[in-house]
Structure to design on (207 residues):
């Protein structure tokens, strides 16, 4: 079809086909050996931990190198249960580290939680929850030892659901205790968006 350059206001703007979260199916990922390892340099000082109205949100500074580019950490927050699925499996919770590059590109690192040993970071947050002021956490404790991750282009999972968000979902889950899960659920019992269609998107796997 020939484009009508004299009526450009009628051109169709496509959006809504590249939304998050999605189910990641190991059978249909593209092997991405050339993807770079995630490099994280998060600070250990929390400036604020609060209930955003949609659950736990923690303000902390730091940077991440994702696919050879530098992003600034804006905040991290937690969803219960997980938003993404891995081979149709829903986890107990999922933490999202939200980043932005200088040019405005957003990138989110997602880490799954399954029930097990208590998580030291959530432990620190619970201890300081009702007390004002800054406190220390060790965010590297949040990141699994195995650096394998999935990468795809999606969206924010809350309005305005902006697309072209880079997602980096770490394959290996970490653990939290049932008491810690209850704490998160007290803030917001259920805050996971429904699964969205993958459509034509490639999902890369960096082993
Ligand atoms: Zn989120």
């Amino acid at each position: 079809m020939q484009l009508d350059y004299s009526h450009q206001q009628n051109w169709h703007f496509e959006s809504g086909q590249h939304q998050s979260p999605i189910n990641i199916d190991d059978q249909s990922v593209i092997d991405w050996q050339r993807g770079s390892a995630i490099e994280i340099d998060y600070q250990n000082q929390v400036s604020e931990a609060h209930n955003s109205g949609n659950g736990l949100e923690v303000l902390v500074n730091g940077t991440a190198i994702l696919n050879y580019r530098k992003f600034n950490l804006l905040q991290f927050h937690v969803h219960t249960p997980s938003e993404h699925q891995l081979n149709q499996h829903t986890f107990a919770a999922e933490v999202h580290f939200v980043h932005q590059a200088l040019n405005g590109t957003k990138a989110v690192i997602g880490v799954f939680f399954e029930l097990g040993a208590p998580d030291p970071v959530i432990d620190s947050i619970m201890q300081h929850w009702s007390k004002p002021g800054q406190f220390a956490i060790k965010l590297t404790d949040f990141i699994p030892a195995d650096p394998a991750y999935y990468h795809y282009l999606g969206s924010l999972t809350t309005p305005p659901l902006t697309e072209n968000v880079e997602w980096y979902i770490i394959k290996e889950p970490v653990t939290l205790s049932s008491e810690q899960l209850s704490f998160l659920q007290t803030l917001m019992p259920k805050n996971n968006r429904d699964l969205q269609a993958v459509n034509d998107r490639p999902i890369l796997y960096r082993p």
Q: What stands out?
A: Residues 77, 79, 96, 157 surround zinc ion (CB under 6 Å). The chain has one domain: 22-206.
